Amino acid sequence: MLYLKTLIIVVQLLSALGVIGLVLLQHGKGADMGTAFGSGASGSLFGATGSANFLSRATAVLAAAFFISTLALTYLGSYKPQASAGVLGNAPVSASAPAAAASAASAPVASSAPGADVPK
Fold this sequence. Notes:
Mean pLDDT: 76
Distance between the termini: 66 Å
Shape: rod-shaped
Order of helices and strands: HHHH
InterPro entries: SecG (IPR004692)
Membrane topology: Multi-pass membrane protein
Number of strands: 0
Radius of gyration: 33 Å
Main location: membrane
Largest sheet: none
Strand content: under 5%
Subcellular location: Cell membrane
Keywords: Cell membrane, Membrane, Protein transport, Translocation, Transmembrane, Transmembrane helix, Transport
C-alpha cells in the first residue's frame, strides 16, 4: 500500500509541474492579435493554431491526471479497514473487554444464589 501511495504522489507531483509549465508556455488571448497581421507563430512547428491546440489539450490531460491522483490520495488517506468478525462470525473483542474482565476478576465475588442480597 505504501508503494501505491508513493506512485500516486509522484504522478501528482509530475502532473502539477507539467500543468505549471504548460500554462506558462501558452499565449494569452491578446497574443492572437499579432498572428492576424502576419507575424508570430505561422511558421512554427505546430502551425499557426496547432501549438495552441496541442498545449491546451496537453494541459487538459495533465490537469485530469492531477485531479484523479488527488482523489485517489484522498481515498487512500481516509481508508480504514473494517474490523474482522472472526472465523465464526462473532463480534470482535474490543481492547477494553480484557481490562473489564481483569477488573471484575479482582473484585470480590458476590453470591448469585436467589435471596443472597436480602438482609438476614
